[in-house]
C-alpha cells in the first residue's frame, strides 16, 4: 500500500474510490471519484465488475485507508494506492 497524491490520480490510469462518509464527501466533493463509504465497501466489491485499472482509495485518515485497501485486496489483484484528504472544517 503506497501513498499517491490526489492530484496524480489520473482517471485514465486509475479507478478512484472515495471511502469517506456521505457527509464528508458532500462537504468537500472530489469530482472524479465514485463515493462508496467504508461501511458499504464489502457489499459493493461483491457487486462490482472486475476492474483492469489500478485503484486509488481516497480517505480521511490512514486507518480508514488501510481498512479499505484490505477489503479491496481480498477481491482484486490490482495495485491499490491511497490518498488522505483532510476533513473539511465546519464553517463558523
Structural notes for this entry:
This protein has one domain: 3-Layer(aba) Sandwich (Oxidized Rhodanese, domain 1). It has helices at 22-27, 41-47, 62-75; strands at residues 2-3, 14-18, 34-35, 54-59, 80-84. The mean pLDDT is 84. β2, α1 (22-27) and β3 (34-35) form a beta-alpha-beta unit. It has a 5-stranded parallel beta sheet with strand order 1-5-4-2-3, covered by helices on one side. The protein has 92 residues and is an alpha/beta fold.
Outline:
The protein has 92 residues and is α/β, with parallel strands linked by helices.
Largest pleated sheet = 5 strands, parallel
Structural class: alpha/beta
Q: How many β-strand runs?
A: 5
The average pLDDT score comes to: 84
Rg, rounded, reads: 12 Å
Distance N terminus to C terminus?
Answer: 36 Å
CATH topology: Oxidized Rhodanese, domain 1
Unreliable residue stretches = none
What is the H/E order? EEHEHEHE
Spatial order of strands in the largest sheet:
1-5-4-2-3
InterPro entries: Rhodanese-like_dom_sf (IPR036873)
Protein name: Rhodanese domain-containing protein
Organism: Aureibacillus halotolerans
Amino acid at each position: 500500500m503506497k501513498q499517491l497524491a490526489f492530484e496524480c490520480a489520473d482517471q485514465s490510469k486509475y479507478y478512484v474510490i472515495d471511502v469517506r462518509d456521505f457527509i464528508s464527501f458532500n462537504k468537500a466533493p472530489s469530482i472524479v471519484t465514485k463515493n462508496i463509504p467504508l461501511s458499504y465497501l464489502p457489499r459493493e466489491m461483491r457487486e462490482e465488475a472486475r476492474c483492469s485499472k489500478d485503484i486509488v482509495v481516497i480517505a480521511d485518515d490512514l486507518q480508514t485507508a488501510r481498512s479499505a485497501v484490505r477489503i479491496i485486496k481480498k477481491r482484486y489483484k490490482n495495485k491499490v494506492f491511497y490518498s488522505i484528504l483532510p476533513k473539511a472544517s465546519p464553517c463558523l
